[in-house]
Specification:
Layout lengths: L1 E3 L6 H9 L16 E3 L4 H5 L6 H16 L3 E7 L3 H7 L1 H4 L2 H22 L4 E9 L5 E8 L6
Parallel strand pairs: 1-2, 1-3, 3-4
Antiparallel strand pairs: 4-5
Length: 150
């Protein structure tokens, strides 16, 4: 299952990444092979205290996806310049690349811990996609490594 943000700037780049092999994540195309949950902030939206209450919908949906689709892995994709991160932790975090990446890393780890408690049988990966100098979301960084799919 893919957990991603609602930001329209990231929809096509993330879909393209899922549709082709991606070293460290998936050795095969996942086109047509994954469920998706999209929420403002991705991992941030599930674990940040500013969005308290949103997590119930995510965990209920994940449970249904496990039951209905037999998913075995959660892939979380956060992104640079995420407005939800700014809401959750302040503009000063969003506007400082080191603080921004650290906040995404911390939330990805919190999600990993919660997933291990709620669904210990699921694998987990977390990724961060940021903009290249041309403004395209094409710079991929591993936040939490997990088993490669396929």
């Amino acid at each position: 299952m893919l957990l991603s943000c609602v930001d329209p700037r990231t929809q096509s780049p993330i879909a393209a990444w899922m549709d082709g092999p991606a070293p460290g994540s998936h050795a095969i195309s996942l086109d047509g092979k994954y469920s998706q949950f999209t929420i403002a902030g991705a991992a941030v939206g599930v674990v940040a205290p500013a969005f308290e209450g949103w997590e119930k919908t995510f965990w209920d949906n994940l449970g249904a996806s496990v039951q209905l689709h037999g998913i075995t892995t959660l892939i979380a994709v956060d992104h640079g310049n995420c407005g939800a991160l700014g809401i959750a932790y302040g503009a000063h975090v969003l506007n400082d690349p080191k603080l921004e990446l650290a906040a995404h890393m911390a939330d990805a780890m919190r999600l990993k811990e919660e997933l291990a408690y709620r669904h210990p049988d699921l694998d987990y990966q977390a990724w961060f996609v940021d903009r290249d100098p041309a403004g395209r979301f094409s710079k991929w960084t591993t936040l939490v490594a997990g088993p490669e799919i396929g």
